[in-house]
């Protein structure tokens, strides 16, 4: 195995834990609600140091053919269940990171297992359709009973894609085509010979100098277009050519919110004014503004519904498209199916991108003019994956059956109240606690963040961070109050070790 970076070695040394013990919690804290997964462990279990000998050996073997430097842990998915993730050495951790917010209804969910065994799934897997050319006869039905069943209000069409970056890139393409189509005078207007010839040499007017505006600390993906709107960390962008696109300021709020209402309102107004100035003055005209309801990778940064309503008003006023990136916030995590439902917009976004918990990807839209005026303009071989669309349909069925969006809202309230108590007890370790009323989409800052994350495995919890100093919670929709009790006790144990 190649040598690890010094930082990785430091983290691994911190992660070593005593062996063969089960993490217990105080019985009176346990909620009485029936578990969604009856076969889940009652608590995390630690059997070896982390990483254990089997995980080390498997990682070394993998390193011969695959870059392992970003590995969190090699996982035994056959032994992972519900909210618990298992490694190769018998360690079973409460997972509140969930594959970077991407597992909605638990590991080895029985309903999804049945979906995976269905004839529809077999057909989709072994005869994978090139959707643009050869969609299956039931593709419309699959979309209507799944992806489109939960479409955001006012958006009744979808372009399916492979991943979150792909979803955003295709949304950007749609925005640019719409912008130029409007300039020409409508979809019926033909391209000029100059446009056709100049685009082949990447020159204007066929390849126009247009832009997508994003926000400071935003994350929208790692492909070329999406990366030009990503502003979270330099390591994501270094050495990659980028488009000349504007970055607007995102509000930097002070917490607790109720103690800084006037200052935060002024900060949001400043950001809106600067956004509008950039739209009016940027040298490459802005075709669309893209924003996350909660900046996730960039540090779990929030803004008020009023800020987003103001942003929508600005985009409408300047005839700029409004793209809401719900890749990480969508599918119930904030206590609403779509996080932008918290905003009470008068008019819906022009496009909403999705992936992660949906297990598929794409963007929703409502305006027919956002569909390109000619075939093959928005196209690739796969254009998504029916197998993943079927899984999303199964996820939706589980969410509806168990009322998981409302459940997540209630569990989030319970968890946030517990974290507030801990923040009062340990104010130096839980700073800027945020996410109240946002389901389980909760975060806080801590001065020893990386050490906190490493020590979490030692108390049986898999947890993640964002930005420079934030601990972010991304539990599954099946996360319950008894899991919250375990997590709260575990957080206090970690703090006492720092």
UniProtKB/TrEMBL annotation:
One of its GO terms (biological process) is gamma-aminobutyric acid catabolic process. It holds the Pfam family Aminotran_3. Its EC number is 2.6.1.19. InterPro entries: 4NH2But_aminotransferase_euk (IPR004631), Aminotrans_3 (IPR005814), PyrdxlP-dep_Trfase (IPR015424), PyrdxlP-dep_Trfase_major (IPR015421), PyrdxlP-dep_Trfase_small (IPR015422). The keyword Iron-sulfur does not apply. Belongs to the class-III pyridoxal-phosphate-dependent aminotransferase family. This is 4-aminobutyrate aminotransferase. The gene is UGA1_1.
């Amino acid at each position: 195995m190649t040598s690890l970076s010094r930082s990785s070695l430091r983290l691994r040394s911190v992660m070593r834990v005593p062996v063969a013990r089960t993490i217990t919690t105080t019985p009176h804290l346990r909620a009485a609600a029936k578990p969604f997964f009856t076969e889940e462990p009652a608590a995390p279990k630690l059997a070896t140091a982390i990483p254990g000998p089997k995980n080390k050996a498997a990682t070394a073997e993998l390193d011969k053919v695959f870059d392992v430097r970003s590995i969190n842990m090699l996982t035994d998915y056959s032994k992972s269940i519900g909210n618990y993730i298992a490694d190769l050495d018998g360690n079973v951790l409460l997972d509140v990171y969930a594959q970077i917010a991407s597992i909605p209804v638990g590991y080895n969910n029985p309903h999804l297992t049945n979906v995976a065994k269905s004839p529809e799934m077999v057909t989709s897997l072994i005869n994978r359709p090139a959707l643009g050319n050869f969609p299956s006869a039931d593709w419309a039905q699959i979309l209507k009973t799944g992806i489109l069943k939960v479409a955001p209000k006012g958006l009744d069409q979808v372009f399916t894609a492979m991943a979150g970056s792909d979803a955003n890139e295709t949304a950007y393409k749609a925005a640019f085509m719409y912008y130029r189509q409007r300039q020409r005078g409508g979809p019926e207007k033909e391209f000029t010979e100059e446009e056709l010839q100049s685009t082949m040499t990447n020159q204007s007017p066929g390849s126009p100098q247009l832009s997508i505006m994003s926000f400071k600390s935003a994350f929208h993906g790692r492909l070329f277009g999406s990366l030009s709107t990503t502003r979270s960390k330099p390591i994501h962008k270094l050495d990659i050519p980028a488009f000349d696109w504007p970055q607007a300021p995102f509000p930097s709020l002070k917490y607790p919110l109720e103690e800084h209402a006037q200052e935060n309102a002024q900060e949001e107004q400043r950001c809106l004014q600067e956004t509008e100035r950039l739209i009016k003055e940027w040298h490459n005209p802005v075709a669309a503004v893209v924003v996350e309801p909660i900046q996730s990778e960039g540090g779990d940064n929030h803004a008020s519904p009023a800020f987003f309503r103001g942003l929508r008003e600005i985009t409408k006023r300047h005839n700029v498209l409004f793209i809401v990136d719900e890749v990480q916030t969508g599918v119930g995590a904030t206590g609403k199916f779509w996080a932008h439902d918290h905003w009470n917009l008068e008019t819906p976004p022009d496009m909403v991108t999705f992936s992660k918990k949906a297990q598929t990807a794409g963007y929703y839209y409502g305006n027919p003019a956002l569909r390109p005026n000619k075939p093959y303009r928005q196209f690739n071989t796969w254009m998504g994956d029916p197998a993943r669309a079927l899984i999303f349909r199964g996820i939706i069925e589980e969410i509806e059956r168990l009322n998981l969006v409302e459940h997540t809202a209630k569990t989030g309230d319970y968890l946030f109240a517990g974290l507030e108590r801990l923040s009062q007890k340990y104010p130096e370790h839980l700073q800027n606690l945020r996410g109240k009323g946002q389901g389980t989409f909760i975060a806080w800052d801590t001065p020893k963040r990386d050490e906190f994350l490493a020590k979490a495995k030692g108390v049986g919890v898999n947890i993640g961070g964002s930005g420079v100093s934030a601990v972010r919670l991304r539990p599954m929709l099946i996360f319950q109050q008894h899991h919250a009790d375990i997590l709260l006790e575990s957080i206090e144990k970690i703090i006492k070790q720092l």
